[in-house]
Amino acid sequence: MDKIDITIIGGGVTGLASALYLTEKYPDKTIMLVEKNAFLGDEQSGRNSGIRHSSIQYKPGSLKAKFCVEGNRLITEFCKKYDVPYADTGKLTVAVTPEEVAKLDYYYNRAVQNGAPGVRKLTGEEVKEFEPNVKCLAAVYTPSTGIVDGATYIKTMKNLLGNTEAIVFDHTKVLGVKSQEDGLVVKVNQAGEEYEFLSDVVVNAAGLFADEITRMVNPDFHYKIKPLRGEFMKFNKNRRPELFMKGMPVYPVPRPIPGGMLDEHGEPKTTSGTHLTPCFDLDASGKAVISNFVHVGPYQVPINNKSDYESNRAPPEVFVKDLQKYFPGLKVEDLEQEFTGIQTKIEGFDDWILERDKKYSNFITAIIDSPGFTASQAVGKHISELVEQIYAEKKEGIEAVVGALGK
Known about the structure:
Layout lengths: L1 E8 L3 H13 L5 E4 L16 E2 L10 H20 L3 E2 L3 E5 L2 H17 L5 E4 H7 L7 E5 L3 E3 L1 H13 L4 E3 L2 E9 L2 E8 L2 E12 L5 H8 L7 E12 L13 E3 L2 E2 L13 E2 L3 E8 L5 E15 L13 H8 L12 E11 L6 E4 L6 E5 L4 H35 L1
Parallel strand pairs: 1-2, 1-12, 2-9, 5-14, 12-21
Antiparallel strand pairs: 3-8, 4-8, 5-7, 6-7, 10-11, 11-12, 13-18, 13-19, 15-16, 17-18, 20-21
């Protein structure tokens, strides 16, 4: 049976970033990344609005909060180093009712506690200095928010990985993972051919399907992913004066996730809701610039099928109803349908799973939703540290056996 030192399941931003950190840390080990789809980043990673979050929404002390702030810095450094298009846009989180104004203080305090730099409160009049067509009573401004060209980011990591000794396979679906004394046996179907190989360490970064992968090796793993589809539309900001935007993401105050998802305390889990996000385009010279188009979304719909991107998509009227509360110039005829994405949401839990398995400690599970795109470099770095722990413990065990035999 073939032997691989480290296997990474999933070719999204978490898997790619983990592979890059691991190839740097372990240049002499065989590292393989397998992706079931034809393209890397073809699910959550490549189907989002490309926001580089500041950590306004996440519970202080949570993995989301910790890795979002660190990840914001690291992904910015990555973009600068490798010429990935990004923009320091800042973001407005706006309140349109007195009740939402009261909630803004809560999220302002969260952002400050999480270490997001430069956060400040704005009045409705001050907001118009940033985005003149946004109407609200108050807002929180987070200057460390920005946007990243997700397609170029994924392509850049893939190309960097191609310059290493790492093995990358697409069209490769994991069928099983089982533990044995000398490692983990991974069974895959690669373009119709099934085979098994042995791996010292397995990193499960399989996104929407990560819970199912972990249960292959540990049936007692109890966390379950509930998919949440996000549907997007777009409009041209130059179509009419009342649609014009200067280029800043605008979010409503977080709201409960549709469908009544609860956290571990029985409280409603929240989401950012339908928002406005600038996107990138290429100018005549081929340089990435802020586009004339603005993403509208995600309009979120709980679904049961993790691969259902298209059935019963919402009409433009529901987007307009959501957005007109703070962007009143938008009309149904302004909107064009865009992509959909499906995000992992863990039933009964409101953070990430990022840990070595409790039964099989050489198996690492990473179930990551938003702000996973922002945090990808920080998460990849942390996963490389978990792998380092595994090899350190393995070395200690071997040394202990050798020491015992020598007595």
